[in-house]
Amino acid sequence: MDTITHEVRESHWKSVIDQCQQRPEGISAKSWLQDNGISEKSYYYWLRKMRQKVYDQITSSADLPSVPKQEAVTFAEIPISPVHLTNEISSSFEPAAVINVKCSTIAVSNSISEKLMDRILQELSHA
Predict the structure, then answer these.
(1) Do 46 and 16 meet the contact criterion of CB atoms below 8 Å apart?
(2) Residue 102: its pLDDT value, please?
(3) Half-sphere exposure of 14 (CA within 13 A, CB side)
(4) CA 103 from centre of chain
(5) Poorest-pLDDT segment among 6-20, 56-70, 94-108
(6) Prediction pTM value
(7) DSSP β-ladder status, 104-108 and 97-101
(8) What distance in Å separates the CA atoms of residue 13 and residue 50, rounded to the nearest whole number?
(9) Using the 8-state DSSP alphabet, how is residue 109 labeled?
(10) Rounded to an integer, what distance in angstroms lies between the CA atom of residue 20 and that of residue 103?
(11) What value does the mean pLDDT take over residues 91-109?
């Protein structure tokens, strides 16, 4: 089959596939194909060919951004004396928000920086 004939057929089937994908809700693909006089076998053949073509384009494209590697999680110890912790935090700290994730609880105040809050939420999403 020459290139032009293949492109015309591909264009036709792309249109048929798009129309079938946008069929009214509640109508099966089989029913839609019968109502429009389209061979079910031909439809699924071309659907498979189109999906394979798109997949090949995606996997061979150098234009896709690479996924950055996740940075290793690092921890920093913040030394606080138990007396200082008990007296100051329990008596004067009123959290503006409390975040509970799995077995962790984080209480934050209104004075937290946006950068620190973003970092906390980023780390929680990986927890």
Answers:
(1) yes
(2) 72
(3) 11
(4) 25
(5) 56-70
(6) 0.47
(7) antiparallel
(8) 9
(9) -
(10) 48
(11) 76
